[in-house]
Amino acid sequence: MHILTRAEEEYLFKTLKANALKECDPIVKEFVECTHGKLVTVLWSCRAQHKAMNKCLMALTTQAEMDKLKIQYLNDLAEGKVDHAQLQREQKLKEEEIKRKSKSSGPGVH
Fold first, then answer.
1. pLDDT of 89
2. What is the Cα–Cα distance from 93 to 96, expressed in whole angstroms?
3. Looking at the record, which segments are called Disordered (predicted)?
4. In 3-state terms, what secondary structure has residue 38?
5. Which residues, 6 or more positions from 49, have their beta carbon under 8 angstroms from its beta carbon?
6. How does DSSP assign 88-100, residue by residue?
7. Rounded CA gap, 109 and 99, in Å?
8. CA angle 41, 47, 48 (to 5 degrees)
9. With contact defined as beta carbons under 8 Å apart, do 66 and 10 qualify?
10. What is the pTM of this model?
């Protein structure tokens, strides 16, 4: 049994979000188009588009959808279709980036 690493979980979550945005793209575009040229009035002018966008995105980012994605990923991993080492390299790069940012914005920097 394979336990997903933090990097794998993060990768799957980003994939889930990307898939949802792709599926909901026409609805998201409607909301974005509605917001053009508006500031505060967006709150009531684009309410219907905002609700539709949220409904679409929420329907595609459920735990059940995440579970399906995990099962597919684990099957792909078992069949050798996933480059596990690449995910580990990407996670290490992200961790190094976070460390660099925290050092550059740490206390004592003026």
1. 77
2. 5
3. 88-110
4. coil
5. 27, 30, 31, 34
6. HHHHHHHHHHHHH
7. 15
8. 140
9. no
10. 0.70
